[in-house]
């Protein structure tokens, strides 16, 4: 559920008798609330660093997760699955655990079974911070070659191609750099905590768009691909929440 303003705290702001894991989430919330005060593509570097520092300190137990126990599905969990292109083979379902959302930022956790894939997607006009809580995943991320080009298909350059294994530092992407479009592949069961600022919003033109990356011959020495937009209707069980696909 999205809050229309930041007037109400995510949880009780009193730290008296507050469980340790709730305090960690509260600390992250308060830092996000202080930093993301408007729907903007850029934010103060000091504020972003403060949020990243808190993300770096968060452990699975801080958000109520046990990497050795299966995710329990409930009313606050969305499922996301996809066709991975191998003749109709379906990727394992992904759980999305919603933590908080307002007009300015959102917090949520993706829990991926082994071999699950979050397909290539973008974050238009958004700053996104991600923290791998447990497990290993491979990340490929791209930025547009020409941000003024609106043609389809469109050229993008590879900026991230690596495997992350927890514990590791959080990562950040920006509207025009850092790998604004990315795809996640779970090497082992894993979980990712995402902070989006601002969140996806169809009303504000921040649609989540899926792509397929095809090789393209580049003369610049960079690894460049052609990104072809995918019809969302062809990605089954995408999740009831448009903003569920983030990272």
TrEMBL record:
It comes from the Eukaryota. GO terms for molecular function: cysteine dioxygenase activity; metal ion binding. The keyword Metal-binding applies. Coiled coil: none annotated. It catalyses: L-cysteine + O2 = 3-sulfino-L-alanine + H(+). SUPFAM superfamilies: RmlC-like cupins. One of its GO terms (biological process) is detection of hypoxia. It holds the Pfam family PCO_ADO. InterPro entries: PCO/ADO, RmlC-like_jellyroll, RmlC_Cupin_sf. Its cofactor is Fe(2+). Keywords: Iron, Metal-binding, Oxidoreductase. Its EC number is 1.13.11.20. PANTHER family: 2-AMINOETHANETHIOL DIOXYGENASE. Belongs to the cysteine dioxygenase family. This is cysteine dioxygenase. The lineage of its organism: Eukaryota, Viridiplantae, Streptophyta, Embryophyta, Tracheophyta.
């Amino acid at each position: 559920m999205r809050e229309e303003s930041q007037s109400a705290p995510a949880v009780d702001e009193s730290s008296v008798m507050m469980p340790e894991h709730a305090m960690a989430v509260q600390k992250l919330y308060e830092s996000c609330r202080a930093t993301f005060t408007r729907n903007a593509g850029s934010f103060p570097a000091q504020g972003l660093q403060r949020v990243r520092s808190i993300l770096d300190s968060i452990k699975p137990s801080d958000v109520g997760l046990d990497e050795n126990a299966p995710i329990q599905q409930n009313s606050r969990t969305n499922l996301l699955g996809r066709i991975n292109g191998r003749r109709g083979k379906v990727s394992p379902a992904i759980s999305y655990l919603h933590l908080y959302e307002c007009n300015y930022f959102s917090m949520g956790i993706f829990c991926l079974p082994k071999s699950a894939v979050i397909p290539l997607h973008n974050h238009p006009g958004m700053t996104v911070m991600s923290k791998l809580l447990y497990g290993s995943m491979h990340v490929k991320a791209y930025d547009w070659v020409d941000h003024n080009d609106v043609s389809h298909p469109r050229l993008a350059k590879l900026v991230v191609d690596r495997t992350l294994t927890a514990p590791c530092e959080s990562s950040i992407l920006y509207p025009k750099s850092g790998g604004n479009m990315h795809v996640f592949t779970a090497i082992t069961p894993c979980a990712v905590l995402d902070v989006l600022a601002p969140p996806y919003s169809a009303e504000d033109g921040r649609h989540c768009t899926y792509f397929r990356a095809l090789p393209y011959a580049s003369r610049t020495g960079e690894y460049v691909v052609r990104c072809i937009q995918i019809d969302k209707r062809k990605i089954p069980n995408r999740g009831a929440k448009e903003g569920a696909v983030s990272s």
